[in-house]
Design goal:
alpha/beta, 3-stranded antiparallel β-sheet, globular, 5-stranded parallel β-sheet, 30% helix
């Protein structure tokens, strides 16, 4: 099985900078934003985006984590991981623009679960989606608002995102697989 590098640290940094600017432009500033990362790496990406937005706009943006494990519709087909705590900022999400942040968008099932989870927490004014890597193969009608990199891939391939906070290095690789 071969692995090829697709994004390095500098590429990820550029993509995150671009996404932060796009979020600010689409929202007309940082007011009213809340960034919620989907564990594991989405939380780290949300924190990075918040730091960039604060640097560019001078406004601290609340961040949190939204665990979607128990909202997934495919629990019987995939091994589950232990749920992580959902952490919503004190300001809540009601009436705010919530940006869901995740590392890879594939089938859309995690994001569908995240939307279901949000309904149990509050009522945002709007929900946007920021993704580091969009690899296609959607099974649900979900489209990201902010994309770091479109990365067409075969269904059998695996896209791996590694981040310094979790893995000690920033990179994205594709592993060849077999159907």
């Amino acid at each position: 099985m071969s692995t090829r590098a697709v994004l390095q640290e500098a590429d990820i940094s550029r993509a995150m900078t671009r996404i932060a600017h796009e979020i600010l432009e689409a929202n007309r500033g940082a007011e009213g934003l809340v960034l919620l990362g989907i564990p594991t790496r989405g939380v780290n990406l949300a924190e990075r985006l918040a730091a960039l937005i604060e640097r560019f706009a001078g406004v601290a943006v609340p961040t949190g984590a939204l665990d979607v494990t128990m909202y997934r519709d495919d629990l019987s087909r995939h091994p589950t991981r232990a749920p992580r705590p959902t952490q919503i900022p004190r300001s809540g999400i009601d009436g705010r623009v919530v940006v869901l942040v995740d590392d890879v968008l594939f089938s859309g099932r995690s994001i569908s679960a995240a939307l279901d989870a949000l309904k149990d927490i509050g009522r945002p004014a709007a929900v946007r989606l920021a993704i580091l890597v969009d690899r296609g193969h959607r099974e649900l009608p979900i489209r990201p608002d902010f994309i770091g990199k479109n990365l067409p891939s075969a269904r059998a391939e695996r896209v791996n995102v590694r981040l310094a906070e979790v893995d000690g290095v920033d990179d994205v690789t594709i592993e060849e697989g077999t159907e």
